[in-house]
Specification:
Elements (H helix, E strand, L loop, with lengths): L3 H28 L4 H20 L3 H16 L9 H24 L8 H10 L29 H23 L4 H19 L6 H15 L6 H17 L9 H14 L4 H10 L8 H11 L4 H27 L6 H18 L3 H8 L2 H10 L4 H23 L2 H6 L5 H37 L10 H14 L3 H19 L7 H19 L12 H11 L7
Helix pairs in contact: 1-2, 1-4, 2-3, 3-4, 3-5, 4-5, 6-7, 6-9, 7-8, 8-10, 8-11, 13-14, 13-17, 14-15, 14-16, 15-17, 17-19, 19-20, 19-22, 20-21, 21-22, 21-23, 22-23
Length: 557
């Protein structure tokens, strides 16, 4: 099945161009609010954006685009200051949407949960209710708690204990709501519900208590952030607890259960209650953590790729100056002030890298400053120290290249002190990208040559270099560890050589169509990131294999 992340590359240029036009029209309207045509242009552009996102099935991005479109449609020409909040939320949402799509394009991973803050800001600006955290989460809510015996108490003693435990919960909730040591407050709330669970364990109405106790346990274990939505959730839980007391027929609201189960899944806690709930409801581990969502949303709200490219370009210019100075010093053709200039450049570059979040790169340069300072005093440099400095500069250069591609998560994981290994890894990634590009170019060349062959009524001259080009693509894919894709391309090259070049008669139209299907599937596999992320296109190679098999070529399982 083709994912929205894969299909995005097919419409990327037109989609981003339309978004940019819509953003510009909206910005001009904010400055000239009497000009309704500007707003209409923005709305028309947003219609196209939403339709495109719907077509490629990027659910979260489509929902945000839909909310933006609704809000933009609601704004009248000549809108006054009362609409400032709504217009600000619109601008922010479009910025977040663009950054999200850039992120999806870079990492081939969809995380629609990242868009909920922007969606809810829009809805609040328009006077609508916010969407819950669990909006994109799904779980079966009809599961029953495994049989468990409850603690036997006299009715009066039981009622008194329930009252005390609810009061304990309220005390913890108050601290949690006021941010007075929220972690301590949530621990008190979890303790209260764990004890309540032992009192309601054998009752049908106690299912909410059980799930809530697990959610609070997960909130503590996973150190989930005290978000506003969670404060509202746990406040609502207290009101539901009041309704539950003395009501044997109480049935918990399904949306409340879903919110609590989402917290259990998000925290991935190993606590006894959370584990039991996760197993009973069949909750899978989510592909993200609460901290990752917060970190990534802050990144989405930050500068876009255009800004990062400009920044990385400026950093690379300074790195080139540093490399030139190192080269002059190494050859002995430097001037007396070269050592001081090198020290100044390294110190400035280290601060710049720290400001843009490249902590490991900044630390790598900072570690070289004492050594270079010694060169300033001695007016001489030793070769081993210069080699270490060169390694550090190459390491920083690889980090800056990742920054330009938007791979900041990988950048943070790079550890200083391993400059050589990191640079080698960066070079390997670059080499893989080059090989993929060459493979795409080889397939495109083969398709054009086959088209020319058909238009020339079977002139074999057009196919002379095609088998050689496809064999080169095959070798590149073997290098990347893509043996199956390489075998399929090799089979296509073999078919062209034996059935189109070495035989006097042209293959039938059906066979040529089948060959085109095989090459198109392989081209889509490469364009969709299947080489660097095979899981992104699990079925595309199967389609290519079916076409190759129909050509009469052997296909390995």
């Amino acid at each position: 099945m083709v994912s929205g992340a894969t299909s995005l590359s097919l419409v990327r240029d037109e989609l981003f161009a339309t978004m940019e036009e819509a953003e510009q029209s909206l910005e001009h309207f904010i400055a000239e609010r009497h000009n309704g045509s500007l707003l209409q242009q923005a709305v028309e552009g947003l219609h196209q954006v939403r339709g495109t996102l719907s077509l490629i099935e990027l659910a979260g991005a489509e929902l945000l685009a839909q909310e933006v479109l609704q809000q933009a449609t609601d704004i009248p020409a000549g809108a006054g200051e009362e609409r400032d909040g709504q217009l600000s939320a619109l601008s922010n949402a479009l910025h977040v949407l663009r950054r999200y799509l850039e992120n999806v394009e870079s990492h081939r991973q969809e995380l629609p949960e990242l868009l909920l803050p922007a969606i809810n800001d829009l809805r609040q600006a328009g006077g609508q209710a916010s969407l819950p955290e669990s909006f994109f989460f799904s779980a079966r809510l009809d599961q029953v708690r495994p049989a468990t015996a409850s603690r036997a108490l006299e009715p009066a003693a039981r009622l008194e204990q329930i009252r005390q435990l609810r009061h304990m919960y309220q005390v913890g909730l108050l601290g949690f709501l006021r941010d007075h040591n929220p972690q301590a407050g949530i621990k008190l709330m979890a303790r209260a519900f764990a004890r309540l669970d032992s009192l309601f364990a054998g009752e049908a109405s106690g299912r909410l208590i059980w799930v809530a106790a697990a959610a609070l346990e997960a909130q503590v274990d996973g150190q989930l952030l005290p978000r506003k939505s969670r404060k509202q959730l746990f406040s609502r839980l207290d009101r539901e607890l009041k309704q539950l007391l003395g009501n044997a027929q109480y049935d918990a609201p399904r949306n409340l259960l879903k919110e609590l189960l989402y917290l259990v899944a998000l925290a991935d806690s190993r606590g006894p209650l959370a584990t039991q709930v996760r197993e009973t409801f069949g909750l899978a581990t989510l592909p993200f953590t609460d901290q990752l969502l917060e970190e990534e949303y802050q990144r989405l709200s930050g500068p876009g790729q255009a800004v990062m490219r400009s920044l990385s370009s400026a950093i690379r210019e300074e790195l080139n100056s540093i490399k030139d100075l190192i080269d002059l010093i190494e050859r002995g053709t430097h001037e007396s002030e070269s050592f001081a200039s090198l020290h100044s450049l390294l110190a400035r570059q280290s601060k710049t890298l720290s400001m843009v979040g490249l902590g490991s790169a900044s630390a790598a340069l900072s570690a070289q400053l004492p050594t270079v300072n010694g060169w300033v005093e001695a007016q001489a440099a030793d070769l081993p120290s210069m080699n270490k400095l060169a390694d550090a500069v190459l390491f920083v250069e690889s980090m800056v290249a990742n920054l330009e591609r938007g791979e900041r998560r990988q950048i943070r994981e790079a550890a200083p002190g391993q400059e050589v290994e990191s640079f080698a890894q960066h070079q390997l990634v670059e080499a893989r990208i080059v090989v993929v590009d060459e493979a795409q170019a080889g397939l495109a060349l083969a398709k054009r040559a086959i088209t020319s062959y058909l238009e020339a009524n079977g002139d074999k001259l057009h196919l002379a270099n095609v088998p050689f080009s496809l064999q080169a693509v095959r070798g590149g894919l073997w290098f990347l560890g893509q043996e199956r894709a390489a075998q399929l391309i090799g089979a296509c090259a073999d078919y062209i050589q034996k059935q189109m070049l070495e035989t006097p008669q042209m293959p039938s139209e059906q066979m040529l169509e089948t060959l085109a299907d095989a090459l198109t599937s392989l081209e889509y596999y490469l364009e969709g990131g299947g080489v660097l992320r095979p899981e992104a296109n699990p079925g595309v190679l199967d389609l290519a294999a079916e076409s190759v098999r129909a050509l009469g070529r052997p296909v390995a399982a």
